[in-house]
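Hi everyone,

Forwarding the result from last night's run.
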Amino acid sequence: MSVRRRTVQVLVAASLLAGALAPSAAAAGEGRGPSVPLRVATYNIHAGAGMDNVFDLDRQVAALRALDADVIGLQEVDVHWGARSAWRDLAAELAGRLGMRVSFAPIYSLGPATSGEPRREFGVAVLSQYPIVSAENHDLTRLSTQDPDPVPAPAPGFGEVVVRVRGLPVHVYATHLDYRADPSVRIAQVADTRRIMAQDRVEGRGPERGPVRQVLLGDFNAAPDAPELAPLWEELTDVEPGGPTFPAQDPVRRIDYVAVSKDTVRARGAAVAESLASDHRPVVADLLLRR
């Protein structure tokens, strides 16, 4: 892997960013030693539209490429969803153009608008430079936006992949929590998330034997000190990126997160990338995976 490009514009000065973010895996010795480096990012791509509400996938590809991340969690991903994203498969297109593997976890999967066309899907995705060993689409409690009279009920869209990073399995989760002011659905979603991640921490589950490395990436639609998020911080470390993420133009709230398991993953630094390619700004973080 080549040495990381330092082209990301962030909220802090370039000199501070250099100190906050770790060097690339190549610069860190290709994973030798007690820990293995991994750069991750999370980005709500707003179905391919920028802060100007114009669909422009080229702009988002450039923003994602500049992050130079090994693993990226995406939210608001259209797959043949509708005219707003030109009926395109954004998950596959972004993966192909970035030269990454992809796992897409739909929240909604509807019949095609025209007979014989692909299903209309919307959800989250994980892009990875590393092999994806397994993938699963878990249910969370949701209040559907497609039902005229919704009630909270289990629905898919909590994506999990296991990636193998220089021999180490890592559980990566992509999520998008409820956006409503009433936190009741998010409270249930946090409980679901903790239950699913706790199951993965049971020794012997999955491809690994021993400590489980976990990375949660997503748009939580709540501030770090929101009471509904507090249970997450019992097992996870909130990787502070040093600035707000929403809206992309003059952001005032941090609602996009990288969170890691306390005992098996350590954060070396993080930052918010300055971009108007979506209505959110991406967060990028450099991690160390403990052996």
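The longest strand covers residues 153-165.

Cheers,
N.
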